[in-house]
Amino acid sequence: MSYIFDVGDETVWSPALRVGRSYVALAEATAAVLGKATGLEAISEDMYDITPSVFADFTRTLLAEYELSKHFVGRQLLHGVLLTSLVIVQRSGIEIVPETEEQEKLWISIPEFSKSMPT
């Protein structure tokens, strides 16, 4: 079984069931801490629709929090949610452009990370 994450009629990610559940739980918990909506809307237990503009706003806020944080453990906790979210944003047709050298370093890992995210 797998999860389905759709933007409109397009599946942007279809991870294994446990991975999908973990991502949703982590994204929702992170969004609550940041005071943001994720843009993830449950259609069924294993299917989510994504509102691209809301999800992109969540991802931008997550990126800013990641970059501003000087706490090693806090950054590591955000890292996986951030990379996954950046891939989903790109697959949704929304471009978030790296604005700093640190973000450029993060962007370098996106293509390889994306290969592990089946659609």
Top keywords for this entry?
119 residues, alpha+beta, 4-stranded mixed sheet, 4 strands, 58% helix, 14% strand
Task: Report on the architecture of this protein.
With 119 residues, the protein is α+β, with helices and mostly antiparallel strands. Helix content is 58%, strand content 14%. The protein has helices at residues 17-34, 52-68, 72-91, 101-108, 110-115, and strands at 4-7, 10-13, 40-44, 47-50. Strands 2-1-4-3 form a 4-stranded mixed β-sheet. It is globular.
Biggest sheet statistics: 4 strands, mixed
Gross geometry: globular
Distance between the termini: 13 Å
* Low-pLDDT windows of residues: none
Quickly give the structural class.
alpha+beta
Q: Provide the gyration radius in Å.
A: 13 Å
Strand content: 5-15%
**Total number of beta strands:** 4
Average the pLDDT over all residues and give the rounded result: 96
Architecture blueprint of SSEs:
Layout: E1 4-7, E2 10-13, H1 17-34, E3 40-44, E4 47-50, H2 52-68, H3 72-91, H4 101-108, H5 110-115
Parallel strand pairs: 1-4
Antiparallel strand pairs: 1-2, 3-4
Helix pairs in contact: 2-3
In short:
The protein is of the alpha+beta class.
